[in-house]
Amino acid sequence: MDPEKSAKETVLITGGGGYFGFRLGCTLHRMGVDIILFDVQNPPQEVPKGMRFIQGNICCLSEVEEAFQGVSCVFHIASYGMSGREQLDRKLIEDVNVKGTENVIRACRRRAVPRMVYTSTYNVVFGGQVIENGDESLPYLPLHLHPDHYSRTKSVAEKKVLEANSSALDGGEGVLRTCALRSAGIYGPGERRNLPRVVSYIEKGLFKFVYGDPRSLVEFVHVDNLVQAHILASEALKADKEHVASGQPYFISDGRPVNNFEFFRPLVEGLGYPFPTLRLPLLLIYSLAFLTEMVYFLVGRLYNFQPFLTRTEVYKTGVTHYFSLEKARRELGYEAQVFDFREVVEWFKAQGHGRKLKVCSLKDLFWNGVLVLLLATVVLAWLPTALALPF
Q1: Is residue 281 situated within a structural domain?
Q2: What sections of the protein cross the membrane (predicted)?
């Protein structure tokens, strides 16, 4: 993004209080763009001078419309239900991901916002099937085949965003240009959703095994690569780029397919822990995840614990699915930069993490025991079936 061309632009970021939204906002701010961060929660860090934070809910149309006044581009990042126990709150997932997106589109039209970049996910086409070097010609996964409500609602929302492309803005001031970036799993120093959960499992001694085919490959994207892709996409919606991204989806990743567990090896060993050598069958872990979800539904109202794994997480981490970046390279000019886990490891160490003598609490002992009991139950139920299979 050219700072001289963008100096008078005002950009709004829904989900601007989150890890990626805040990082995107700070990058654009340093480039001379006026930034509005819009979120229900305050950012994790102090908002830099010159940036604005508006506390609001995308589920409330009036709050969205008020914040969108005078905005020239919206990055719609806000979503809910990506991982852990969040995946099990269907109503909130529906409200945020579908109703919230409808409100953002409506507000763009009413406030004559000409550009909107939507942060989507690989999951709109993936539901547990093997995909090798897939591209944007792949059809959406049928909604009834999605194993979780987050993926289902993100698919619905992406369709709405792309269908809104070229729709008229109120007041006869042109049309709305939209595109969608289908992101791989995000990592980077300070990431607050997935990596802390992984580290907590490591520190509690729960990371004792890996699962699935060691040749299975998945993808990740460093936060700064995803920032780059969003900025390029917003530029590619402009007239001087011939609106090349208008109405288009793009897969975005680091472009380096890797086994999920090998990807995390530098983090595990960098914090001083041994990497597991025990490998379990994918079906066994999927069954364990199913039982864990059932336990959550039974006792979650009394004790809102974090499920060890959900079924969707088993698919996303254990089944091969990776995609070509050719379209993003050709139309956006996207080139993934190479990052490693050293900065992530150093960030966690600076927060006091790393292997040390730790006394296990009664709470940890209890949930370790629950995990062992669930695993034993699944093994006993699964073993007769496995022994009966022809090999």
Answers
A1: no
A2: 280-299, 365-383
Radius of gyration of the chain measured on its C-alpha atoms: 22
Q: Which domain holds residue 87?
A: 10-186+221-255
Cβ atoms of 231 and 340 within 8 Å: the answer is no
Q: Which residues pair with 175 in a beta bridge?
A: 168
- How many domains does one find in the chain? 1
Q: Are residues 91 and 280 in contact, defined by beta-carbon separation less than 8 angstroms?
A: no
Inform me whether the pLDDT recorded for 260 exceeds 90.
yes
Residue pair 288/377 in contact by the 8 Å Cβ criterion: no
User: 140: domain CATH number?
Assistant: 3.40.50.720
Q: How far apart are CA 356 and CA 368, in angstroms?
A: 19
Q: What is the pTM of this model?
A: 0.88
Task: Give 77-118 pLDDT, tens digit per residue.
Answer: 999 987 766 777 889 999 999 999 999 999 999 999 999 999
Residues carrying an active site annotation: 150
Question: Letter for the amino acid at 318?
Answer: G
- 6 residue type, one letter: S
What is the chain's mean pLDDT, rounded?
A: 89
Identify the bridge partners of residue 185 per DSSP, sorted by sequence position.
220
Q: What is the DSSP string of 4-70?
A: HHHTT-EEEEETTTSHHHHHHHHHHHHTT-EEEEEESS--SSPPPTT-EEEE--TT-HHHHHHHTTT
**What's 238-292 look like in SS3?**
CHHHCCCCCCEEEEECCCCCECHHHHHHHHHHHCCCCCCCEEECHHHHHHHHHHH
User: What are 252's strand-pairing partners?
Assistant: 183
> Is residue 331 a part of any domain in this protein?
no
Residue 309's identity, in one-letter code, is: L
- Return d(Cα 335, Cα 54) in angstroms, integer: 32
